[in-house]
Design brief:
With 312 residues, the chain is of the alpha/beta class. It is built from 13 helices and 11 strands. The chain has helices at 3-6, 21-35, 57-68, 89-99, 110-119, 134-148, 164-176, 192-202, 214-218, 238-245, 252-255, 278-281, 288-307; strands at residues 41-42, 46-51, 72-75, 102-106, 124-126, 155-159, 179-183, 208-211, 223-226, 263-266, 310-311. It has a 5-stranded parallel β-sheet. Helix 5 (110-119) links the parallel strand 4 (102-106) and strand 5 (124-126). Helix 6 (134-148) crosses helix 13. The N and C termini lie close together (10 Å). Pathway: Amino-acid biosynthesis; L-arginine biosynthesis; L-arginine from L-ornithine and carbamoyl phosphate: step 1/3.
Length: 312
């Protein structure tokens, strides 16, 4: 294990702000080596998945990543555990701490995640909350690195709802020296706390721009990134948001204003014809499927790091 990831052994990942720039760089390097078979971490431990929100990529990539480490996975569905019947999170955390080696949680409230981290001594990983989605950003940054050979100096533009993905992109890009621009309608901008934290983390290494102007935001950008306009739990708002968010759709017209070699990213699932057009998503500049695959490699690297896996 490299010194930059050895420091992660036994630690929680509740927010990208918990990490340093060298630690993220180390995780990305380890993920890249795992992807091409250069290294093979081995860690016969047990991962628990406690997901109160639906999941495809996060659930499957964490599971496959743990199996490839030689470990096992227990799916702790709320409807099959006492969590679904109202057992206090503090009690559940202290019991799971006695059974598991690492716990990934996908839930609504960030505070629920914090409670598990407080009462369990095993590493607790944020697999998505309403505030952040840090594991997604590892895959995004690895995809950027693969496309351009480096991260520092690149410009990524996020268009759409200032949601949990936008929050984590702000932090992650700031930490690795990527200029981050977030273009949203005025009433849908990311929370000010995340914007200010990103600016502090970026320092004079990169820039942070929050704007309502999608044309300004994509000018010369190396990556255009979008997400659904209504996140999980907001589906009833989707149809009302379409006319508000239409100017932020990632389409061929907007893509022509970016860098000629720009790539297109989407964390999925996607609604073709809403936040992104089908021709762009399936086009030559799309890296959406590489990005989805990289969830596996980056999460395997994360698990290996927090568990102190043996590297062959």
């Amino acid at each position: 294990m490299s010194t930059d990831t050895a420091s992660l052994k036994g630690r929680d990942l509740l927010s990208l702000a918990d990490l340093t720039s060298p630690e993220i760089d180390g995780l990305l390097e380890l993920a890249a080596q795992i992807k091409v078979g250069q290294v093979k971490p081995h860690c016969p431990k047990v991962l628990g998945l406690l997901f109160t929100k639906a999941s495809t990529r996060t659930r499957v990539s964490f599971s496959v990543g743990m199996y490839r480490l030689g470990g096992q996975v227990i799916d702790l569905r709320p409807d099959a555990t006492q969590v679904g019947r109202g057992e206090p999170l503090e009690d559940t955390a202290r019991v799971l701490d006695r059974y598991l080696d690492v716990l990934a949680i996908r839930t609504y409230e960030q505070q629920d995640l914090n409670i598990f981290a407080q009462y369990a001594s095993i590493p607790v990983i944020n697999a998505l909350t309403d505030l952040e989605h840090p594991c997604q950003i590892f895959a995004d940054l690895l995809t950027l690195r693969e496309a351009f050979g480096q991260l520092e100096g690149l410009t990524l533009t996020y268009l759409g709802d200032g949601n949990n993905v936008a929050h984590s992109l702000l932090l992650g890009c700031a930490l690795v020296g990527v200029n981050i621009r977030v273009a949203t309608p005025l009433d849908y901008q990311p929370l000010p706390d995340f914007v200010e934290k990103a600016k502090i983390l970026a320092g004079d290494r990169s820039s942070v721009l929050i704007t309502t102007d999608p044309q300004k935001a994509v000018d010369g950008a190396h990556a255009l990134y979008t997400d659904v306009w209504a996140s999980m739990g907001q589906e009833e708002l989707a149809s009302n948001r379409i006319p508000i968010f239409q100017p932020y759709q990632v389409n061929e017209s907007l893509l022509t204003k970016a860098d000629p070699n720009a790539i297109v990213l989407h964390c999925l699932p996607a609604h073709r014809g809403e936040e992104i057009t089908a021709d762009v998503m399936e086009g030559a500049q799309s890296r959406v499927w590489d990005q989805a695959e990289n969830r596996l490699h980056t999460q395997q690297a994360l698990l290996a790091s927090v568990l102190g896996a043996k590297i062959d």
